[in-house]
Specification:
Layout: H1 10-21, H2 28-47, H3 52-63, H4 67-77
Helix pairs in contact: 2-3, 3-4
Length: 78
């Protein structure tokens, strides 16, 4: 799985940390991946009518922790 490093403002870092501390996610990486998946779903639902196949890919990406599924979704649909 590829990795990346991003500089974020303190307020965003504290938000991600609090999500982990409150038990919503097991790690900061998991929280950020989940937030990206939600944004992908939101953006597609706002910009276009999602096909059933696309919706299924979003569901699969939300269930998988493997970044490969997300990259495949992005390459196929964005």
């Amino acid at each position: 799985m590829p990795t990346t490093s991003v500089d974020i403002p303190d307020v965003l870092y504290r938000y991600v940390e609090s999500e982990v501390e409150e038990g919503r996610y097991q790690s900061k990486a998991e929280a950020i991946r989940s937030m990206i998946r939600r944004e992908m779903e939101r953006r597609h639902s706002v910009n276009e009518q999602l096909s059933e196949e696309t919706l299924e890919k979003v569901r699969e990406a939300r269930q998988q922790e493997d970044e490969g599924d997300i990259r495949e979704f992005i390459e196929d649909h964005i």
